[in-house]
Specification:
It is a single chain. With about 160 residues, the chain is mainly beta. About 0% of the residues lie in helices and about 55% in strands. The protein contains no helices and eight strands. The two termini are about 40 Å apart.
């Protein structure tokens, strides 16, 4: 990759450590989930984002995020010869995508971009253990003054195989 001034950018590396857990408390419908991730770049001065003359998309030496979720499984009984289940849930997520060690040709100061929080409340309906229908309301808190501030209603379907 090349910087905006035409100079060849050197190499960089990325190391990511991720940990996840999921636990359903025996003999109850209560389920807990969590995830944490930490990322470090070997040489952020060589990243295109730090050399594209746009100081708002800079990448720091590190970034991280974490989320936690609580859900409860309610059996709905047998419908159409299948065991249905409703699972209301709440999930909180925090991400910081611009931390430490800014370097490159752009103005290298943290802008607040990349500091995001998400509050998700929703329900998942399982017509069978291999099929899920989801509806979620997502509240977004974005520290970037120019960033997306809009909340959303999301829907989806998924299947396991």
């Amino acid at each position: 990759a090349y910087a905006d001034d035409g100079t060849l950018l050197g190499r960089s590396s990325l190391t990511m450590v991720d940990s996840e857990f999921r636990y359903r408390i025996p003999n109850t419908g209560l389920e807990l989930r969590g995830e944490g991730v930490f990322v470090t770049f070997g040489n952020p001065a060589n990243l295109r984002a730090n050399n594209d003359s746009d100081p708002t998309d800079n990448v720091g030496k590190t970034m991280y995020g974490a989320s936690g979720e609580i859900a409860y499984h309610f059996p709905l009984g047998t419908i159409l010869h299948s065991e249905w289940e409703a699972v209301p849930f709440y999930r909180y997520t925090y991400e910081n995508l611009q931390t430490k060690g800014f370097a490159g040709t752009d103005l290298n100061t943290p802008t607040g971009a990349g500091q995001l929080q998400f509050h998700n409340v929703g329900i998942a309906i399982f017509p069978s253990p291999k099929l899920v229908l989801k509806a979620t309301y997502q509240k977004v808190i974005n520290r970037d003054p120019a960033g997306a501030q809009s909340d959303s209603v999301l829907g989806g379907a998924g299947f396991f195989f």
